[in-house]
Design brief:
Layout lengths: L1 H9 L11 E12 L6 E13 L7 E7 L2 E6 L23
Antiparallel strand pairs: 1-2, 2-3, 3-4
Length: about 100
């Protein structure tokens, strides 16, 4: 299945994402709770995350939308000048295409 997905993506005529755009990730998530000693799961929910592509340290990394709420994704704890590009904040330009 992953081969079919990557083949379809390779045939796409969309251009590369520019620095003034966002990378958009849409997924389904399910909350779980083990406090009762038994696994209790909630319903599937759609989640959308948009990551900023701007170069340099960022204080606002993007935003997340789930369950009717939209919340910012802020710089990592301790990054008072903003989170730099690296393992926790990948610049998509550095990913081989």
């Amino acid at each position: 299945m992953l081969h079919r997905i990557s083949d379809a993506a390779a045939k796409s005529n969309t251009g590369p994402v520019r620095d003034d755009q966002f990378v958009h990730v849409r997924s389904q998530v399910q909350d779980s709770d083990l406090t009762s000693g038994k696994l209790v799961t909630g319903p599937l929910q759609e989640r959308e995350i948009r990551y900023a592509r701007k170069p340099g340290p960022l204080k606002k990394l993007g935003y997340i939308r789930q369950d009717g709420d939209t919340l910012p994704i802020n710089a990592e704890f301790g990054d008072t000048d903003g989170t730099r590009e690296g393992l926790t904040r990948i610049r998509w330009r550095s990913v081989p295409q």
